């Protein structure tokens, strides 16, 4: 039986980062992806993701700061540009309770540079927005964009460069902790899953998102996860130059429902979406068909928020959200099986990718105080 120091299951952003950091530390690493590398069935494909230190929870601010250092190191090591810093704004309506109510106070307490802007100042800087006077705006200059698919493929390349063996189209059927230590990993070898290959690793990292409970169930563990299909739409604005990253920031509408969006990035389109749309589904029942109702809701929001009569939707891309209660991360060994490490990013972890993978590859603590 083949023996490894570390096995990683799931090669989206977080699993690919964990494989890279484990291999970089001189560990023998094998990693498994049930689909092809770079697939579109999870949450790590497409182009852009927001990176930011602006968060209402101090522990996430600390992790984001660490991640920014890791992003910079990854860019330096590879010679590839992964982040584009644009500045970012979070809009917080005063007439409702939102997760961003304490944002400015947290940034002040943690020393993150920010500005608190009124509606008039927002309109002066970015006349593309049309916001009411009852909205406060928090601007952070370090917010920007990470290139999603480029990041994932680069991490996979770097993992292989450091000796990791990455196996795609190879579903893991079972992970079984062994009495003598380590974990037995059994993978399917054909489409009917009638034959298996067996591997042994000193520890296993599960970065399996919505498929996590399938592997945890035989171990008597269940994590309450909610899975939904999300969608983002790329719009062609009348004047793309007005939305160039030099003139337009990443933005978040911090209300309920919440929306977010990007300046132009690699093409003359702007991207926008609702966050956590509650379009519930199971991974094996996903249709990949965008919701017309969600599209109409987004179109209506954009008409009032960023008015542009000539704007046209060009394409809509779906992805999968898998969230924990309160959207807290899970970065933790199983209590009864400490050689099995679980990493769940609750659909907001891409900005932390290198730090998240680094922590998974090391001996992770429970972060932040996960009840699982």
From TrEMBL:
Q: Which GO terms describe its molecular function?
A: flavin adenine dinucleotide binding; sarcosine oxidase activity
Is Flavoprotein there in the keyword field? yes
The prosthetic group or cofactor this protein requires is: FAD
Name the reaction it catalyses: sarcosine + O2 + H2O = formaldehyde + glycine + H2O2
Taxonomic superkingdom:
Eukaryota
Q: What class of enzyme is it?
A: oxidoreductase
Q: What is its EC number?
A: 1.5.3.1
Residue ranges constituting the FAD dependent oxidoreductase domain according to the UniProt record? 5-362
Q: Which Pfam families match?
A: DAO
Instruction: Alphabetically list the UniProt keywords.
Output: FAD, Flavoprotein, Oxidoreductase
What protein family does this chain belong to?
Belongs to the MSOX/MTOX family.
Q: What is this protein called?
A: sarcosine oxidasee (formaldehyde-forming)
Lineage of producing organism: Eukaryota, Fungi, Dikarya, Ascomycota, Pezizomycotina
